[in-house]
Amino acid sequence: MHAFAPPRSFLAPLRSAGGVLRDAARRVLPGPSAAWALPLVLVSCSPAGMEGAGDGPESSPPIEADHVLPSTPENLSWGWYPIDKEPALRVRSGETVRIHTLTHAGATQDEDPVAYLTGLGVPREEILDDVLAIWADRAGRPREGRSGHLITGPVYVEGAEPGDVLEVQILDLETRAAWGINNTSARGGVFSTSYPGHREGDPGLDIPPGTRHVIHTGMSGGREVAFFSPEIEVPLEPFMGILAVAPDPVVGQPGVTVPGVQGSRPPGPFGGNLDVKDLKAGTTLYLPVFQPGALFYVGDPHGAQGDGEVSGTAIEQSLSGVFRFVLHEDRTLDGPRAETATHYMLMGIDLDLDRAMRHATWEVVDFLVEEKGLTPAQALSLASIAVDFRVSEVVDLTQVVTGYVPKSIFLP
Fold this sequence. Notes:
By secondary structure, this protein is an alpha+beta fold. It has helices at 23-28, 113-119, 129-137, 353-372, 376-386; strands at 2-4, 36-38, 67-69, 76-78, 89-91, 96-100, 150-157, 165-175, 179-184, 211-220, 223-229, 232-235, 239-245, 271-273, 284-288, 296-302, 319-328, 337-339, 343-350, 388-393, 399-406. A hairpin with a 2-residue loop joins strand 10 and strand 11. The longest helix has 20 residues, at 353-372.
């Protein structure tokens, strides 16, 4: 059970034409002293030799949502965000949706998924039917200019138009299977020869090609963990690597090599493959709208990830999430922002990590000037003495640095 105070700070300036929040938003957002208690549904497994699996309290019931969007083939895109796809679901501002997602790991390779996954040690009964369905449906799907993620959507938000802001409240995330996969290789992730930091003559790691780590998950000591080894348990912190609205792709932009096709590997102003680990239950994300209806997509589900995602993958693990969508029609943003109960999160995205750091700092300064009334000089000073800048992701072509502005420094 996770309890948190709902983020409210960005909402203050996000006003409707009448000067108040939309009726839907006011209905669902609690008052300043309230806290939401959101259950995290936990899946238990008992890998051989892993003591403690299955210990702890029973799982809480899942959150009820206004709609459910399954991860069936017709609702999945493979490695891109179609801007003209028929909406999988239409919602009004303020409504909630439970969205099922699938990891691509085990679902998109050439080999039959049952043979492939059981060969890696995944029990047959833990392979989702949705995995079998999308694998059987993959033939004939366009691949040019696309990446490898499986992405559920789009969700059409009634009334959303280009220039608006879509608020995405992440209310709940839960694992759908008690396993995930992490890949490592001698020349993968930050050790890739295509990584911007690579230099001729740099050594590679001593890792056999094609090494895949199947990591079982379950309960231990009252919490859900990844059983990395008999001596190591990693707490699960599930989050969606991809949270996106349909972009406005232009050939030459990162990930756009085919007209109208934004590959899902690099994140951008539309959100996408941000891989920011704090975009978990209790966090609110804000995205600029580029297409009518916003066309929200979600995928690349992760059980746990460290900042940077340095091997190139996290624990790639199928998840289900509940999201509330709130539309703001008179507010504009240039790129994604987020907030938790304790921090504002401002993101810098660029092909160059140093430029991403500069962009993140600029975003923090802009936020402090526009929302907190500081001068640019004061804002940069405060950014330097009170704001933590974290390297969120460095392996997806464009790189992400996130500035964390603590809310506690601002007095009531």
